[in-house]
């Protein structure tokens, strides 16, 4: 099986990297954390123009997908640049709506009007959607105060939440969590479980990709820093202990990348083992990014703790992403059970 990206996929990644590099994402992240979503929504629109959200939406609803490999490529770049917002939740919600919108008999089929209304808006970037699945991702929705819609899956029911509780403190201030409240039932029945499982797989894959990109950004920034910081008249990057720490971080990230691409291929092909592959990619990428954050913090020294340094925006995302949509323990259990 080929895990390497083709030329078109690599060029897509480079174009997203260039766009996000020029977009000043740290300013958007800080504004989002403060409750000002305008810079983040502007960035969201640019991502939609690049086709990022359309990758999760089928062509019949004005999308390009579903294309899990390209989705993993794009979310790696979103993680590399710490883009704020319910990015993962929006594409997972698209997967849920798409699966429920298939032509199925029974009362568990989503109303055509609802699917037709939301999926094109997701593809175009006009709709920011959060998704709460207590059985898979915990009781809180991400950024419900900034979302145009919040979908909640509980048991065999999908509902559209009407309100949310107070925003809770988070290790990452740009991840604004709150409990969704009330709502209108969109679908009910046995097919909801299958659709929810599929959405959770998409969410776990996208989160793994974000973690990989985040880890690579942390490593790149740390390598640049150790070349500049000096002790005893020499750059600390010349010390063997520092080199070994950075090498371990790089190896962990390099090991995670083919697992991510393999999981994306398994999801694209509908392989029976896709759940285990996604879980393996999720735990490996999440742990690698978390290790990269710890390395970055240690090698930056006291300056790494300061909020003024942009590095903190990346460091504070590592642990929440590691645990979102499948904790390491849950992912390892899924792999062992396969």
Structure description:
This protein has 338 residues and is of the alpha+beta class. The protein has twelve helices and ten strands. The strands form four sheets. A four-stranded mixed sheet has the order 1-3-4-8. It has a two-stranded antiparallel sheet with strand order 2-6. Strands 5-7 form a two-stranded antiparallel sheet. Strand 9 and strand 10 form a beta hairpin. Helix 5 packs antiparallel against helix 8 (191-228), helix 8 packs antiparallel against helix 9 (240-269) and helix 9 (240-269) packs antiparallel against helix 10. The longest helix has 38 residues, at 191-228. The chain starts with 6 loop residues before the first helix and ends with a helix. Residues 104-108 have low confidence and may be disordered.
Question: Summary?
Answer:
The chain is of the alpha+beta class and 338 residues long. The protein has twelve helices and ten strands.
Question: Beta-strand percentage?
Answer: 5-15%
As a whole number of angstroms, the C-alpha radius of gyration is: 20 Å
Kindly state the percentage of residues in helix: 55-70%
The side-by-side strand order for the widest beta sheet comes to 1-3-4-8
DSSP summary: helix tally: 12
Task: Tell me about the largest β-sheet.
Answer: 4 strands, mixed
Backbone shape: globular
Kindly report how far apart the N and C termini lie.
Answer: 20 Å
How do the SSEs run, as a string of H and E?
A: HHHHHHEHEEEEEEEHEEHHHH
Instruction: Point out poorly predicted stretches.
Output: 104-108
**Derived structural class:** alpha+beta
Average residue-wise pLDDT: 93
Using DSSP, what is the number of strands? 10
């Amino acid at each position: 099986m080929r895990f390497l990206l083709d030329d078109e996929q690599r060029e897509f990644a480079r174009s997203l990297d260039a766009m996000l590099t020029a977009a000043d994402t740290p300013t958007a992240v800080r504004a989002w954390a403060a409750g000002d979503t305008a810079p983040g929504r502007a960035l969201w629109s640019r991502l939609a123009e690049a086709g990022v959200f359309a990758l999760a939406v089928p062509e019949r609803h004005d999308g390009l997908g579903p294309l899990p490999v390209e989705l993993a490529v794009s979310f790696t770049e979103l993680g590399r640049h710490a883009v704020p917002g319910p990015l993962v939740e929006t594409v997972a919600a698209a997967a849920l709506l798409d699966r429920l919108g298939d032509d199925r008999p029974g009362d568990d089929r989503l109303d055509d009007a609802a699917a037709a209304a939301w999926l094109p808006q997701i593809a175009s970037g006009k709709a920011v959607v959060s998704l709460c699945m207590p059985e898979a991702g915990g009781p809180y929705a991400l950024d419900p105060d900034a979302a145009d819609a919040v979908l909640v899956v509980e048991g065999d029911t999908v509902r559209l939440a009407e309100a949310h509780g107070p925003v809770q403190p988070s290790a990452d201030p740009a991840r604004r969590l709150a409990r969704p409240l009330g709502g209108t039932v969109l679908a009910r029945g046995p097919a909801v479980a299958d659709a929810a499982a599929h959405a959770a797989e998409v969410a776990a894959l996208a989160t793994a990709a974000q973690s990989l990109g985040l880890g690579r950004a942390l490593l790149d920034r740390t390598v640049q820093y150790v070349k500049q910081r000096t002790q005893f008249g020499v750059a600390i990057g010349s010390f063997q202990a520092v080199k070994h720490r950075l090498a371990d971080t790089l190896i962990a990230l390099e090991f995670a990348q083919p697992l991510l691409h393999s999981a994306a291929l398994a999801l694209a092909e509908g392989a029976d083992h896709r759940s285990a592959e996604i879980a393996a990619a999720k735990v490996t990428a999440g742990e690698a990014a978390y290790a990269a954050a710890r390395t970055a913090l240690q090698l930056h020294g006291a300056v790494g703790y300061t909020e003024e340094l942009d590095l903190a925006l990346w460091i504070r995302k590592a642990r929440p992403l590691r645990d979102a949509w499948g904790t390491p323990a849950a992912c390892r259990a899924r792999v062992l059970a396969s």
